[in-house]
Specification:
The protein has 350 residues and is α+β, with helices and mostly antiparallel strands. It is built from 6 helices and 18 strands. Helices cover 28% and strands 22% of the residues.
Length: 350
């Protein structure tokens, strides 16, 4: 999950009122900005939070009664799944295939154990991590999309949608908002930020990225997510163990890295940010090369690791970002006026 985004003051001069709604969803604060009259905005916000609650009830690893927690742990036992869970499983398998397993939602047994290890302040025993890893692996999932049924090929396999669930939730919330006739909207689900159409008369939603470089993002119908070890980690023996796990080893990523991703949907940005932390810039840029709709920036708080290339190999188009003021700042994106619209701070890492 992404770090919470901090609310910022709205810029003056919008052609309509921007209404703000907040609620705790999926264990974190969700902030929704809507450009609409009061009754329409209220109706759209209610619809958005209702959809978020439905997604949470299907995907939450924390809710004992969630649908994902009720999935069978015994190999070969096949069960039907609901729409929201089916969407998450299908999306997760697609991302596992696309990233050659760098993204993997079947690490639930491991993520739960590492969560307890972080709380205790002591890493897992390597033998225990290897044993848990044997109960993981996206290729062990038997999912029939047409029949909407799920089974696992190994005992003890447990799904964890922590690296994609909030993105799915943000996309579902935006779809509900648009169904109520509101197009100018922004959903910030704990740092997974999804921008719809900007307010009338404005070019974009403005996002202040907490990336240490003062980057400003101009987003319209795009999402941004940042993944890394800044908040959730375990420091042991002079090494920082990220909450992001490498699916090939069952061990946390140890390179101090943060990856910010911009994509058309929050689901894409969420999954890709985690995968790129595991893949690194060389493999990651090879993946991005065929997808101009995805952009990413790597940064290393402790400096560039050996062989990583430039200090921050950014592939985000300059037309979508603006670093802190200085001679290297690219021009603002073109639009009907010089104002960029309401602003929000985020994403800040995860």
């Amino acid at each position: 999950m992404a770090l919470p985004a901090v609310a910022a003051c709205l810029l003056a001069g919008c052609a309509c009122d921007v209404r703000e709604y907040r609620r705790i969803v999926m264990g974190a604060e969700c902030r929704i900005l809507l450009c609409a009259d009061e009754s329409t905005a209220d109706r759209a916000a209610v619809a958005a939070f209702r959809r978020l609650a439905e997604v949470e009830e299907a995907l939450s690893d924390w809710m004992v009664a969630s649908e994902v927690r009720r999935l069978p742990m015994r190999a070969g036992e096949r069960v039907p799944v609901g729409d929201n869970l089916a969407t998450a499983i299908a999306a997760s398998l697609a991302w596992s295939d696309r990233t050659d397993g760098a993204f993997d939602a079947t690490l639930g047994a491991l993520t739960s154990a590492w969560r307890s290890a972080r709380a205790a302040g002591k890493p897992l025993d390597p033998a225990e991590a290897r044993a848990l890893l044997a109960r993981c692996g996206w290729r062990h999932v038997r999912f029939d999309a047409s029949a909407r049924t799920y089974a696992a090929a190994v005992d003890g396999l447990r799904l964890d949608f922590g690296a994609i669930g909030q993105g799915i939730g943000a996309d579902a919330a935006m779809a509900a908002i648009r169904a109520e006739g509101v197009r100018s909207a922004l959903v910030d689900l704990s740092g997974d930020v999804l921008a719809g159409d900007p307010p009338p008369g404005r070019r974009a939603w403005v996002i202040a990225a907490d990336d240490g470089r003062g980057t400003t993002l101009f987003l319209r119908n795009q999402a941004v997510t940042t993944s890394g070890d800044r908040e959730q980690h375990l420091d042991s023996g002079g090494e920082r163990l990220s909450h992001v796990l490498d699916p090939t080893t069952g061990w946390p990523v140890t390179t101090r890295v943060q990856v910010m991703v911009i994509a058309p949907t929050a689901t894409e940005a969420d999954a890709l940010a985690t995968a790129l932390c595991v893949m690194g810039p060389e493999r990651g840029r090879a993946l991005l090369a065929g997808h101009p709709e995805w952009t990413a920036t790597w940064s290393w708080p402790d400096g560039t690791p050996a062989g990583a290339g430039a200090p921050a190999p950014a592939v985000t188009p300059a037309s979508l970002t603006r670093p802190a003021p200085g001679p290297a700042s690219p021009p603002a994106p073109p639009g009907p006026d010089r104002g960029a619209g309401p602003s929000a701070q985020g994403p800040s890492g995860r």
